[in-house]
Write a structure and sequence with these properties.
CATH topology of the largest domain: BirA Bifunctional Protein, domain 2
Largest sheet: 11 strands, mixed
Distance between the termini: 33 Å
Number of helices: 15
CATH architecture of the largest domain: 2-Layer Sandwich
Helix content: 25-40%
Radius of gyration: 26 Å
Oligomer: single chain
Number of domains: 3
Shape: globular
CATH class of the largest domain: Alpha Beta
Strand order of the largest sheet: 3-9-10-16-13-12-11-24-27-23-22
Strand content: 25-35%
Number of strands: 27
Amino acid sequence: MAKELKELTPREENYSQWYNDLVVKADLAENSAVRGCMVIKPYGYAIWEKIQRQLDDMFKETGHVNAYFPLLIPKSFLSREADHVEGFAKECAVVTHYRLKNSEEGKGVVVDPEARLEEELIIRPTSETIIWNTYKNWIQSYRDLPILCNQWANVMRWEMRTRLFLRTAEFLWQEGHTAHATEEEALEEARKMLDVYAEFAEKYMAVPVVKGIKSANERFAGAVETFCIEAMMQDGKALQAGTSHFLGQNFAKAFDVQFVTKENKLDYVWATSWGVSTRLMGALIMAHSDNNGLVLPPALAPFQVVIVPIYKGDDQLAMINEKADALVKELKALGVSVKYDNADNKKPGWKFSEYELKGVPVRVVLGARDLENGMVEIMRRDKLEKTSVAYEGVAQYIKELLNDIQANIFQKALDYRASVTREVNSYDEFKVEIEKGGFISAHWDGTPETEELIKQETKATIRCIPLDGDTTPGVCMVTGRPSARRVLFARAY
């Protein structure tokens, strides 16, 4: 069984298959009976809950509150904002009827043709339209602003090619939707939430990110500006890990959401929206894991420590149980989440393999002989290193070790990103370098035509215009026209 648990396709042999194997074998998720949709299994959902809980706390610290809006959106709402409907029309799931009936042939149920809806309903691909229709009832005066709402929800986008966590037809996410009295406030909000996402990614996920602005081609449908965080995966492909959109007054005008200003004038409300999804699970897996399984940062591991006993006979087990119970209490008092696995239906070797596969940051082995000598064995998952530590004071040692593991995982990812980030100055050089993967910093003339040409010829896209990148003017690597600054290219998920 231990061998079966570890049978992962090597990363270097087939990265895509390695990822698929790992998601399934580590018990994170599996495909469902519904095309393109997934079942998130308990261990995977426990990680998502950690992500959700931490982000929710960060949102509330910045003044946001949670609400919930309908899953179904009247079709007419999507046509109110032209760019929005164009951006989502091809991936909408549509509800047309409200009743089934028994088949006259006795072959199960069929849609009742008499139960057609007067207006079709769209299963939300995102909620701007239904929320701004609602905000119209909430906002009359500047005194009603700002509105700082977030919702945790599921959405449906009819994806043709799906991959667990990275791209599924239905996925879980949060979407913030805020309303403001001024353009400056809305822009400040969009930037603030981008900073929240970046802090979360780096501090908790241990994934370094580049903060930037999307090009017009890559901008969210209906947005004036889209801010993003971009992460680098271990196969040299980028992954968009979060977006924050400045929507201007587009949705307020589409749904006629006006307010009386302090100057007693009528104006349209300024808006933002921002979100991250279960795609973060994919980023977490691909940024850190190895051929032995998951490597989870302690901050998001369902449990940070697993204790495994090794014993012969009930007397040894009783002694180990006593030591384990005391250690569990000490660790919990230090804020460390811990599991003591003394189940007798699996051998220690099987447990070692399973917890290694599942990425538990620290494994503690309590052996009868070691304990008699006052020692325990510690294994850190990130480096696969074992060490013997005195039982007395081991809880504090583990607490500090977890901090070291979190920092080491981040540094390793940061070093990798640095090793695959480089500048190029000619299109010929770009075509060679993009085949090697990673981020490429290059000059671009700012036109969507040149951006599309690069995409068609190299499959690389502009991931972002970095907020703190090189702003030295130059010339476009493709056309030779003036370029205001370098932008970041990569092939991406």
